[in-house]
Amino acid sequence: MSRQMGDSHRRFLQTMMTSGITDEQGAKALYQYCCETHNSQYAPDKLDDFIDTINSKLQPLFMQIRKGMSEDNGQQFYALVNTTETDITRMSSDYADNELELFKKTMDLIVSSENGKASSTEILNCADTISNKKLKKSETEHLLNRLIHDKWLCEQQGEYTLSTRCIIEMEPYIRTMYQDQVKVCQICHNVAFQCQICENPTCGIKIHNPCVARFFKGRTEPRCPSCDDFWPHEIPEVRQPHSKSKR
Ligand SMILES: [Zn+2]
Ligand SMILES: [Zn+2]
């Protein structure tokens, strides 16, 4: 197979550099658009090969287009990530040291929580414990808004979660940093934050909410795929990605 970067690959990469992250539907549409614009070969099921070609050229630049799942809706996303920095220092060009310290503390809260969330109150309390230059309440709130804007955090009703982009980009760091705390999803084997947990104390496996929906769909009596105990949680509905408007 050809590993040559063409204009279609370059255009795809340029768009990813601007947006940072796109869902699978968006990536497919962009792939088709780039191929058609530059009259290059297009095959609907070859998106991952197309991205592999781009990645082979990005590797020496310490960048990569990486695939991952949204913990909210189970959709696949593609994010352009930096592979040089192994920790949050990758964000140091955009954030001051005390801001990074608060982000790190927010991550600690989210990772150690059962539901993958941290409340604004918990985060504000953490702001008082910053070692070098304390952040005022208004500064903390402003920082949280920036972290949402820059797609590191998501917020819903005062509860903060790690964004899909953050999980895709930081996964190697999270796995190293929180070895003892972080668990992977029993179904998809990616790190799991927002998830359901098996209540059997000797088991305690985690499954992402969208993975729960897919795994238990159509089963009359849900049982833990690891210990076979009854799965007592409410099974969410499988959420369909946006219907395809084209074709
Ligand atoms: Zn999963
Ligand atoms: Zn179990």
Which terms would index this structure?
247 residues, alpha+beta, Arc Repressor Mutant, subunit A, Herpes Virus-1, 3 domains, three-stranded antiparallel beta sheet, globular, disordered C terminus
Describe the protein in words.
There is one protein chain. This protein has three domains: 55 residues, no CATH class; 85 residues, Winged helix-like DNA-binding domain superfamily/Winged helix DNA-binding domain (Arc Repressor Mutant, subunit A, Orthogonal Bundle), CATH 1.10.10; 55 residues, Zinc/RING finger domain, C3HC4 (zinc finger) (Herpes Virus-1). The protein is 40% helix and 15% strand. A hairpin with an 8-residue loop joins strand 9 and strand 10. Helix 1 packs antiparallel against helix 2 and helix 4 packs across helix 5. The longest helix has 16 residues. The two termini are 28 Å apart. The C terminus is likely disordered. The structure holds zinc ion (2 copies). The site of one zinc ion has 7 residues, from loops.
